[in-house]
Write a structure and sequence with these properties.
About 25% of the residues lie in helices and about 30% in strands. It is α+β, with helices and mostly antiparallel strands.
């Protein structure tokens, strides 16, 4: 079983502001919605910032309870304030090769490089580490490189995630939002920077098994920080590629 939840947060509450200031804190709050005896499953989530409110979407493999999150950062006692939890399996049953959906996803576009123009001290130490077999993973920060990253995996003959969005010159995808975040992680107070890109558009399923795995396991990196949750809706008119 899988469950898709929606929790509405109250942006005027102090705890809400504390949670949204750090993806790590919000991730921990989401995990507390599951039984704590065995939180080993991949939990996907996404923060949606609206004009007057905020919503958290969460995909879990077990049925959650959002009572604690609602009590501390939501609208306890209000109509719809308890959090909406829906069975995700009916959507999975509709997945088939050739089927089209409208989609939305927040991604963390990155690449692994072995040569950096201006490495930080930490990056230089990692590159000089003889035991390190891979390069340094860096985030794409411009709209063009973020869009190119997505199209390289979901356009033309590429179907890394089990779907395509058309061909590079005529793709049905739009880059609708970009964010740069920086926050402190762990007891060692390590600073983490995160560049995200939100894409919307129209996709076509090319591989049922791979696409289902993408829905359940997420897309790309940064999943603990609110990236990778691919949400679907009935297909709308195709979007156009933009680089703004």
């Amino acid at each position: 079983m899988a469950y898709l939840s929606l929790i509405t947060l109250n942006p005027l509450r102090r705890e809400t502001q504390r949670l949204i200031s750090s993806p790590q804190r919000l991730h921990a709050a989401v995990l507390r919605g599951l039984p704590q005896d065995d939180v080993t499953e991949r939990v996907l989530w996404r923060l949606e910032r609206r004009e007057r409110t905020m919503e958290v979407l969460v995909l879990t493999q077990r049925r959650p309870s959002w009572a604690a999150l609602v009590e501390s950062a939501g609208w306890p006692g209000a109509d719809g304030g308890e959090g909406l939890v829906k069975d995700y399996d009916p959507l999975l049953a509709r997945v088939a090769v050739g089927r089209e959906f409208s989609f939305r996803v927040v991604t963390n576009p990155t690449s692994t490089l072995s040569v950096l123009k201006s490495p930080t001290a930490q990056q230089r130490a990692s590159l000089d580490d003889a035991s390190r077999k891979r390069g340094i993973r860096v985030g794409h920060r411009t709209a063009g490189t973020q869009l190119g990253w997505f199209l390289a995996r979901a356009a033309g003959d590429f179907d890394t995630w089990g779907f395509t969005v058309g061909v590079p010159g005529d793709a049905s995808v739009e880059l609708v939002a970009r964010r740069h975040e920086s926050f402190i992680k762990g007891v060692d107070r390590r600073r983490v920077t995160l560049d995200t890109a939100t894409f919307e558009g129209r996709l076509k399923v090319t591989d049922t098994e791979r696409f289902t795995a993408t829905l359940l396991g997420g897309l790309g990196r940064g999943k603990a920080y609110g990236c990778g949750l691919l949400t679907l809706a009935p297909p709308r008119e195709a979007a156009h590629v933009v680089e703004g």
